Amino acid sequence: MTPLLAAALAIAALAALFAAELKRERAKVDAPTLGERIDLSMRPNLALLVIDMQEDFTAVGGRGGWDERYMKTHLGAIDIMASKALKAEIPVIAIRHVHRMPLIRLTVRLFGEGRGLPGSKGLGLSPELGLTPDFEVVKALSDGFSSPELEGYLQAKGVGTLLLTGLDGCHGVQATAHGALNRGYRVEIVENAVLSRDEGAWRRHLAALTGRGAVLI
C-alpha cells in the first residue's frame, strides 16, 4: 500500500467516523424528553408556544435562507396567533435554541455561518415578529421541555393545553410536541404557523403526532 493510498483511506475513515458521530449527536438533540405526567383536571389553561423563531433561523435568501414569501406568510400567521392570545389573556412563551453539541457546533461554524451558536447576535426573536413574549426559555435540545423552566412556568400558570407554532416542524416543533404528549398535555398544532424545510418529512411527523392525540388547528 502506497503512502498516498494509506493517507486517503485514513481520511475516509475519519470522515465516516465524523459523519456517524454527527448523526448520533443530531439524533440525541432531536429526541423528545420524558417527564412526570400532569393532572389535566388541575391544568385548565392554555399557552401559546413560539418555537425557535430567532433571527439566526429566520433569515431570508442567501445560503441556507428561507423563501421570502414563505417566511412572510408564516410570520404573519404567528403574529395573528400571538394577537389572539394577548386578547384572550393566554400567555405567549418564546422558546429559543442554542447549539451546544460539539460536532454540531463545528458543522454550523464551518457551513452554517455560525447561526445559533453561543455568542451569535441573532439568538433573539426575529425582529419581524411583532410580539413580546410573557416568558422565554432557552434550550440546547430540540424539545422545549429539556429546559425545566418551561414546565415550572406551565405549572405555575395552570397550563394543560399547548398551542404550538414555529420552526422547524421536523425538529423543535415535533420534539416539543412529543415531549408535551409524554407528560400528558393536550397539544394543538397551528398548522399554518409551523415552518419546515422538508414538507414531506413534516407530514410524516404530523401523522405520528396526530396518531398520539395531537390536534391540528
How do the strands and helices of this protein lay out in sequence?
Blueprint: H1 3-30, E1 45-51, H2 68-87, E2 92-97, H3 102-111, E3 135-139, H4 148-156, E4 159-166, H5 169-182, E5 186-194, H6 199-211, E6 215-216
Parallel strand pairs: 1-2, 1-4, 2-3, 4-5, 5-6
Helix pairs in contact: 5-6
Pfam families: Isochorismatase
Keywords: Hydrolase, Signal
InterPro entries: Isochorismatase-like_dom (IPR000868), Isochorismatase-like_hydrls (IPR050272), Isochorismatase-like_sf (IPR036380)
Task: Give structural notes.
With 217 residues, the chain is α/β, with parallel strands linked by helices. It has one domain: Isochorismatase-like (Rossmann fold), CATH 3.40.50. It has six helices and six strands; from the N terminus they run αβαβαβαβαβαβ. It has a six-stranded parallel beta sheet, sandwiched between helices. β1, α2 and β2 form a beta-alpha-beta unit. α5 runs parallel beside α6. The longest helix has 28 residues. The protein is globular. It starts with a helix and ends with a strand. It holds the Pfam family Isochorismatase. InterPro entries: Isochorismatase-like_dom, Isochorismatase-like_hydrls, Isochorismatase-like_sf.
Identify the notable features of this structure and list them briefly.
Isochorismatase-like_sf; 217 residues; Rossmann fold; globular; signal
Widest β-sheet, arrangement of strands: 3-2-1-4-5-6
Number of helices: 6
Termini separation comes to 62 Å
Question: In CATH terms, what is the fold-level topology?
Answer: Rossmann fold
Shape-level CATH architecture: 3-Layer(aba) Sandwich
CATH class: Alpha Beta
Number of domains: 1
Overall average pLDDT: 92
* Proportion of residues in β-strands: 15-25%
Shape: globular
- Rg of Cα set: 19 Å
- CATH evolutionary superfamily: Isochorismatase-like
Work out the helicity level. Answer: 40-55%
- Note the run of SSEs as H and E: HEHEHEHEHEHE
Question: Structural class per helix/strand content?
Answer: alpha/beta
The beta-strand count equals 6
Largest sheet: 6 strands, parallel
| Poorly predicted tracts of residues | none
